[in-house]
## 1
Amino acid sequence: MDKYPLVSIVTPSFNQARFLEYTLRSVLEQDYPNIEYLVVDGASTDGSLEIIKKYEKKLAWWVSEKDRGQAEAINKGLRKAKGEYIAWLNSDDMYARGAVRKAVGALQAEPALGMVFSNVFSIDADNQIFNTIRYGVYGLVDLMAFNIIGQPGVFMRRAALEQAGYMDLNYHYLLDHQLWLRIASKAPIRYVDDYFAAARFHADAKNVAMAAEFGREAFAILGWMRTQPELAGILKVNERRITAGAYRLSARYLLDGGLNAKALSHYLKSLWYHPATAWVERRRMAYATASLILPLGKAREKFVAERSLRIRSQNLHDYESLFDYGDQK
């Protein structure tokens, strides 16, 4: 087995100059010696090209041209990639120091794995960690029930990706989750209880700006699962749990989008289909309920205070060095 197999990393980018250099450096300054880095820009007009050109001698390949969105951009990079292991990192996210080395170690330890995934930090527009997103030992049924994995923490085996196929251009918000389902239906996946990456939350991010669209796409994926021979039988056996998961995911994003009444409606539907699935979101359910009874400001103030208390107990400052790439050069 090659001690340092080639790892291909693709960054799709469009008008993210504010964050792009941090992303590039988080890949280029990894301590793993065999990385092929590809950047696919969608004809940005905000200064991104100047940043890419600054680092182009360290890139295996890059392009800047119009495309049909994130899925097509990622596919361009994936088709150029030559690595045994593959990942993509969006242009506003960052890898933690040592992430690639750790991911390769996990994949090499179990040659049958199709992909590995880790926990993910949440960072704000100023690179400050403000939350941890922890996952668990998820299998195919868990993914079908819309237990979402943080995309920046995923590394795939090239053979599994090629068997599953590349990004489906029909999806724009849960395009990564639909790919994980296809990979997990063909090969085992493994949770690594570590932090490979940080996902950035800011006003222009899709998970903030287009929150309500995620639920609509969850139900589209639910319909797609019914058409897939490898998934339809599993769905039939676990239909209530999986349907509840779609409603829970929709409710979560509706709440983030400020659509509190509709969010509560979807939480209640999730509760009816499969109580245990909905109950994991009990604090957010309580906030959605309180926001319809109390003045919105007071309800949100209570929710944020409780959340801040939980976050402070995590000692997030202990992890800041993982993303300390200094000032942009």
Note: The chain has 15 helices and nine strands.
## 2
Amino acid sequence: MNEFDLIEKYFNWKNPGSDTFGVGDDCAIINTTANTQIVTSVDTLIAGVHFSKNTSAGDIAYKALSVNLSDLAAMGATPKYFTLALTLPELNEVWLSEFSKALRRLAAEYQLDLIGGDTTKGDLSITVNIIGEVETGKALLRSGAKVGDLVYVSNTIGDAAYAWQQIQQGIKPSDFYLNRLNRPRPNIKLAQQLVAVAHACIDVSDGLEQDLLHILKRSKVGAKIDLNAIPMSAEVARYVDNTQDWCTVMAGGDDYELCFTVPKTSADALKTIEKNLNIVLTKIGVITKNQDLEIVGLDKACKSYQHF
């Protein structure tokens, strides 16, 4: 099997009703609609950095696409298309079949078309470039936070970092924590609801502390966060209580939850969103005038993920 047979067999599919042209040509052709803006992002996952050597092909495929979907969620965008660059150490059809099936299932869930990409031989890595649409002028940005806004996060923080830490220690995490690490759920529906109420938004990928700082820097504001308000799952909460290791929660990353700011008048709207989506949204602090981040209860500096 050569490169072109591989693409044809595992990655040349088309969703029903799709009007795009991509796989099989030199470039993809995308039809855009009036009154919308294109939103695009790219992420690369590398073996040993973003997933362990024992991670299944299905989990790798799911995470590679999901983390890009999370970037679209942070903007309040609707997913439309993606491209895939796949570097493989060898041609393993069992691995490719599992990878392809998981990728296709998640793409179908979000009505997302695969429109092109590339395959090469080398150390295992997966790069996804995702493209979405948002109504003109409605995108959620990092630069919109205002003094007095309340700071919220979705669901729980620290689960994925806790699972990764266990793996590094030779401990097998429970299925719940493995899924939080390997199969994060992109908050697309939440973000689309937040477009009407939020001033600023970011997805938590490199650590809550660092990612919130991105909002503060772009918005030229500060924030005061209550450490004890950070929502945690039961096992992570027990771990922190026993070790006082808040850095795993605040700086571990890989949460792919949303951190966003809203005016105080949006409190009732958030309760409605919680109920409609069966999701938990937790207030963790407030935006301030001083252009720094104060985390009440954290007495040491944490180091969030850095690529270099």
Note: The beta strands are 36-46, 78-88, 113-121, 125-135, 150-154, 200-203, 222-226, 258-262, 281-288, 293-296.
## 3
Amino acid sequence: MNQNQSEIRYLTPPTVEVKKKKYCRFKKNKIRYVDYKDPEFLKKFLNEQGRILPRRLTGTSLKFQRKVATAVKRARHLAILPFVTDLLK
């Protein structure tokens, strides 16, 4: 019985989740200015409903998250991006 207890077998090997390091794409690519006239770039920071994604999901630094938010709001005001939508992407 002791020999049987020591032999523990798994159906699938236990997986260890490796979290990928988040990075600010603005600092990595040395982007200084967030252009509000480029809707394709701004869509990367929006979800399907058109809401701005939070920093914890995108990995954007605080400084650039503020710039992205103002750029998205300006683009919405000029009707480049929609305020609300069903499927944006």
Note: The two ends are 58 Å apart (CA to CA).
## 4
Amino acid sequence: MTRLLLINPSNSVKGLGNISTTSFPPLNLPYIAALTPSHYRIEVIDENVEQFQYRDADIVGLTAYTASVHRAYEISQLYREKGIPTVIGGIHASMLPDEAAQYCDVVAVGEAESIWPEIIRDFENNCLKKIYRGEMMDLKNLPLPRRDILKNNYYKWGSIQTSRGCPNNCSFCSVTAFNGRRFRRRPVHSVIEELETIPQKYIMITDDNIAGYHKEDTEWAKSFFRLIIEKRIRKFFFAQASIQFGEDIELLQLASKAGVKVILVGMESVNPKTLKSYNKNINLKHLKTNSYDTLISNIRKAGILFLGTFVIGGDEDDISTFYTTLNFIRSSHIDILQFTKLTPLPGTAFWNSLKKENRLLDLKYPEAWKDYRFTKILFKPKKMTIQDIDEGNFYMKKIYFGFWETLKRTFSTLVTTKNLMLTLTAYKFNQSYKKSFKTSDRYSLFDKPGFKKKFETPLPEKSFRDKRSDPSGKHEALFPGEN
């Protein structure tokens, strides 16, 4: 029997995906396994939940994000030295196939399901090519992923995908470059059938936007939630959506009743110039019409926790950004918060512009990829120093995760959702982020008296909400340069 070993390497920093209480399985490897002939014995090593130990194989498949690709290359070399062919796929290898080809025998570019059968045939005929280029698949043809190859007891969360593609094309995001701008849905009954096979109670819906972008997408989501309710599938769902998710009250009610309890929304910034530079036009529209509060409130009142993510360090950000962002987070009562630093992922418009302007810092690839984990500034900022951004990041997190802020936020979550279980869930999520923050190697560098002074002294003490509703229109301190 031919031995196929599939490997999901981990980066060095722990996040929601590789902390034991929130770990969820990779979906790409079970999809690959489903397209592999039955005479293969398949094993999986997921470094997010287990330590790597060398296992013999006839062929090795690896997947990697940018932050974990250096580790993938290391593992690949171990097998290549023994004459065992290695295949790598995923977003990073698809964006930089020539680089990946230096460290692996085969590079699968794009959606690997469309080319994996060909790779296997060529392997068996001893005629593997260096690069295979996949096509964006009709999701009707996706097989049922083979979760039996996973150590499912290692994962508290299961995972499922209902769509691919994103028309938004945000400047810092590589999803569009990998999955395309056309939003593709799976047949709803196929998703339900798969959902009923997942053993875990907690489910991560890995779509970039569960509600989609057009009316037909929203109707699909409503049908999906109605079927979950009708079939009495009792799960706890974590999903992602745009801020527009809060516009449709019927959708929110169906989602909540079906078990959607946490929704991650990419807020990115409260600076309109930054949103424009990020090409985040949906958010920009709602920010300028002051509808953020209403949409966030609608989601929370439906009994769904709001996890807001912010990307700091954009070219239009300055020192005032940290104070205004923190005040917005406080006033809008976001239940769970995630900060990341703007990271120039290969294949994105932001990456391309930085290369053109010669603003990328550490160019010692592939070793430098280890730092592409959204926690470091890896380019020359325009309006701040890297020190400013590091200190501003510390300032916001130190206050947000502080005792009194945590107490007020937890009380707000309980009052709004009227659900103790959800309140505890929000608390645990925030504690995971807090632990990651406090155990970072840079925490001690900034944990000093007076850390607030730099960000609060020059700015008015009025709250973000007061400024947004100020009839005088004097909001220049909030939105520098907006005219």
Note: The CA atoms of residues 290 and 468 lie 7 Å apart.
